[in-house]
From TrEMBL:
Single Gene Ontology BP annotation: defense response to Gram-positive bacterium
Positions of region (Disordered): 1-33
PANTHER family, alphabetized: LYSOZYME G FAMILY MEMBER, LYSOZYME G-RELATED
Gene3D superfamilies, per database record: 1.10.530.10
Identification of the protein by name: Lysozyme g
GO cellular component terms attached to this protein's record: extracellular region
Record lineage: Eukaryota, Metazoa, Chordata, Craniata, Vertebrata
CDD domains: GEWL
Catalytic activity: Hydrolysis of (1->4)-beta-linkages between N-acetylmuramic acid and N-acetyl-D-glucosamine residues in a peptidoglycan and between N-acetyl-D-glucosamine residues in chitodextrins
Species this protein is from: Synaphobranchus kaupii (Kaup's arrowtooth eel)
EC nos: 3.2.1.17
Keywords: Antimicrobial, Bacteriolytic enzyme, Glycosidase, Hydrolase
Compositionally biased tracts (Polar residues): 1-25
GO molecular function: lysozyme activity
Active site: 73, 89
Length: 188
C-alpha cells in the first residue's frame, strides 16, 4: 500500500538503543534488535492486521508504521497491557498505540478500531507538524520526525540528526522505523 508520507523502507534507522534492545534479555543494540523485538510481537500484532490495514488505508499511511508503533508501545497488546485494561505509562497512556490522556481524551476500547483511528490521526497530525516545521526534509525524514513527534511533541524535534535526542530511551523513531520495516517485509 502506498503512503503519502514517504516510503518506510527508505527511512534510515539505527534501530533500538541498548536499553530498548535489552527488553527481552541481553542483546546488542541496533536494527537487528528492533527486528527481534518485532518478531517476538508478530503474533500479537497480527491479531489486529485487519483493522490496522483498514485504518492505514483511510489515512494514507503504510500499515507497517502503525504496527511498528503498536509493537514499540505495547509489545502488540501484551498481557501486561491487557491486565491493566489497556493503560500504561503509570496510568497516563491508553490502548495499543498508548494515547496520552494528558494531551488527548482516549477514544474507544483499548484495542478497538476507534482507538487505532485516534492514534493514527495523532500520528498524521505529528507528521504534518514536522512537514510544516521542516519543509526541506525529504518525505522519509519527515515521517521519521513525525514518529519522534508522536512520542514527544513536534516542538521537541529540533534537527534531523538529533531527531531522537528527546524521545523515550532516545531511540523512539529509530526503533519504530526498524520495527515497521520488519513488519512491511512480513506481510503488513
Amino acid at each position: 500500500m502506498a503512503s503519502i508520507y514517504g516510503n518506510i523502507s527508505n527511512v534510515e534507522t539505527t534501530g533500538a538503543s541498548q536499553e530498548t534492545a535489552n527488553q527481552d534479555g541481553p542483546r546488542n543494540p541496533g536494527v537487528s534488535a528492533s527486528h527481534e523485538l518485532a518478531r517476538t510481537d508478530l503474533n500479537r500484532v497480527s491479531q489486529y492486521k485487519g483493522i490496522i490495514t483498514k485504518v492505514a488505508r483511510a489515512h494514507q499511511i503504510h500499515p507497517a508504521v502503525i504496527a511498528g508503533i503498536i509493537s514499540r508501545e505495547t509489545r502488540g497488546g501484551s498481557d501486561k497491557v491487557r491486565s491493566n485494561g489497556g493503560w500504561g505509562d503509570h496510568g497516563n497512556a491508553f490502548g495499543l498505540m498508548q494515547v496520552d490522556k494528558r494531551w488527548h481524551t482516549p477514544k474507544g476500547g483499548w484495542d478497538s478500531e476507534e482507538h487505532l483511528i485516534q492514534g493514527t490521526e495523532i500520528l498524521v497530525s505529528s507528521i504534518k507538524q514536522i512537514q510544516a516545521k521542516f519543509p526541506s526534509w525529504s518525505k522519509e525524514q519527515q515521517l521519521k520526525g513525525g514518529l519522534a513527534a508522536y512520542n514527544m511533541g513536534a516542538s521537541n524535534v529540533q534537527s534531523y540528526p538529533g531527531v531522537d535526542s528527546n524521545t523515550h530511551m532516545k531511540d523512539y523513531s529509530n526503533d519504530v522505523v526498524a520495527r515497521a520495516q520488519f513488519y512491511k517485509s512480513n506481510g503488513f
